[in-house]
């Protein structure tokens, strides 16, 4: 059977630094794969290479349902159903919230006018982003709602695979709980999710499997309960015992 989503020998260097180093991985349809690793271990770069936003790999392949996508344009990849969110609140600050969603819907879904607006409303309702914020400039939203807007913008593109880059960073307890519940809900709706997160209780609480990166290379991949006990993982996070 054709694997759902495969990464084969993916690499990206910046000068002499190997940010992602010969990484191979298979993702099952419907799973939530958590991605952990120390700062600078290549997690966000991996998302960049998959989505081509803003750059693709130096070498290696990304295969979605049997089709190599690493040479496709970023918008084509999104149109095929692979959509990301960003670590920072990547909203168009001067645009209204709804225009942020509509830009994405137009580019990925090719929808305009009433159809695009209907999609924006539906995505807002799915995520729980208040429709009465739609006409406020995105820059005026508190961080929590900017995060919600970014997730809404992604959901409006009807992803098959949703790549979430630290959706809970800068959030407080109740807000982190909201992120947890939202990830579970989107996954239950059928989205396969790759989740980068530094908040370990959230990451281990929602993920079915965990991938741990160090210097662009996987040091562990497997069931959460096994990976969190793996000595190489403990060392990567806590340092070598003296
Ligand atoms: N555009 C770039 N130009 C140069 N170096 C880069 C670039 N993007 C990332 N890097 C470097 O590649 C390495 C991996 O960065 P990346 O952002 O993928 O790590 P990360 O695991 O997501 O880190 P964090 O948890 O801090 O977000 C780091 O050393 C980083 O400085």
TrEMBL record:
It comes from Hoeflea poritis. One of its GO terms (molecular function) is ATP binding. Coiled coil: none annotated. It holds the Pfam family ABC_tran. Residues 5-240 form the ABC transporter domain. SUPFAM superfamilies: P-loop containing nucleoside triphosphate hydrolases. SMART domains: AAA. InterPro entries: AAA+_ATPase, ABC_AA/LPS_Transport, ABC_transporter-like_ATP-bd, P-loop_NTPase. Keywords: ATP-binding, Nucleotide-binding, Transport. The keyword Transport applies. This is ATP-binding cassette domain-containing protein. PROSITE patterns: ABC_TRANSPORTER_2. It comes from the Bacteria.
